[in-house]
Amino acid sequence: MVQSVLKQTALQSQLAAASVLRPENGKGKRNMAADLLLTALIDAFSILVIFLLMNFSSTGDILFINKGVELPKAAKAEVLERNPVVKIEENKIFLENQSIGTGDALFQSLLELRKKFSGDRPGEEFPGIVTVQADRRIKYEFLNQVVVACAQAGFSDIRFAVLAK
Amino acid sequence: MRPHKKHLDFELNLVSFIDLLSVCICFLLITAVWLNVGSVNVKQAVGGQSQAETEKKPMMWVMLGENGDLTLDLKEAGHVPADLRKMKLVGDSGKFNFDSLAKILAQLKEKEPNLRTALIQPKAQTPYEDIIDLMDQFKKSGMADLGIVPL
Among all residues of chain B, which has the CA nearest to that of A75? Predict the structure, then answer.
């Protein structure tokens, strides 16, 4: 029944009409229109769109993770927000992607950031939040200078960037 | 005269719909972020406020030792029996014994529900990953306020 309805509608369609060819020997018409069932294709597309929309991130790229850097993993990770980023890569410290020599230099740069914030937004409370992005294999000995510099400059709320498990 | 029968079968033009879905899929695939990056929030432990200004609340000091050993030291926790206030957790083949830690934390939270603060004191050679794993375990056990102690 379904097949006959499909056949009928296909024959009535413009596509079907255009596709009916008369063979050269002229013995009869041959229907060249194929009944392509698009339902399954649309189902698959819809599922893909829904899946991708659910995974869509509107926050944009906050961190740029270079090749070879592996962030630690955590199950109880919170949403990453846009804050000044201190990055540790190959035993070098970067602040907002600019190389900073040591912990003392980081302290000076963070102080400048703080002064800039106070100048730009007078009267507003300084949030003191910094994001630290470091490779999972580094030792605390190295991370310590970043922690100390952040604390001394008034960035007491440290957010360690992690991969959500 | 019999009325003319109207055809109920009609053709829905799906081409534009498929076009739209294809464009959506391409856009979402290109802009997809496959790495889900989050953050573990930590407060700096030492400094900031003077001791007089600091509110007295139950707090746990966690000292990391060699071979995954942990020393837990509870302060300002009046409801916790004295034998549970200072404990040493032996590591499990060089790693932290997270199962034992989870059990002990559950036990302590039962005795002292206001226990929400833990200060982690790593050693110089402690890998960063181990510190994050430990913080994650504390967060799972309901310790929301975590701090890290500088060397």
Answer: B136
pTM for the structure as a whole: 0.74
What is the DSSP track for B72-110?
A: EEEES-TTS-HHHHEEEE--BTTB--HHHHHHHHHHHHH
From first to last of its 165 residues, what are the pLDDT tens digits of chain A?
Answer: 445 555 555 455 555 554 445 545 555 566 666 677 788 888 999 999 999 998 777 665 677 888 888 899 999 888 888 889 999 988 889 998 888 888 888 999 999 998 998 888 888 888 889 999 999 999 999 999 999 999 888 888 899 999 888
The beta strands (E) that lie in A1-154 are given as 73-74, 78-79, 85-89, 92-95, 98-100, 129-134
Backbone torsions φ then ψ of A30, nearest 5 degrees: -125, 125
Pairing state of beta strands B117-121 and B86-89? Answer: unpaired
Q: Is the CB of B31 inside 8 Å of chain A's CB atoms?
A: yes
Query: What Rg value do the Cα atoms of chain A yield, rounded?
Result: 31
* Residue B18 forms contact with A (CB below 8 Å): yes
Nearest to A140 among B24, B32, B131 (CB): B131
Q: Which residues pair with A4 in a beta bridge?
A: none
CB spacing of B48 vs A161 below 8 angstroms: no
Q: Burial letters for A18-30: b for 16+ Cβ neighbours within 10 Å, e otherwise?
A: eeeeeeeeeeeee
CB-based contact, B11 to chain A, within 8 Å:
yes
| Residues of chain B contacting residue A61, judged by C-beta atoms under 8 Å apart | 33
Interface test with B, best of A138, A160, A165 (most B CBs within 10 A): A160
Note whether A92 contacts B: Cβ–Cβ < 8 A: no
Complex ipTM: 0.76
Q: Terminal CA-to-CA distance of chain B, rounded, Å?
A: 101
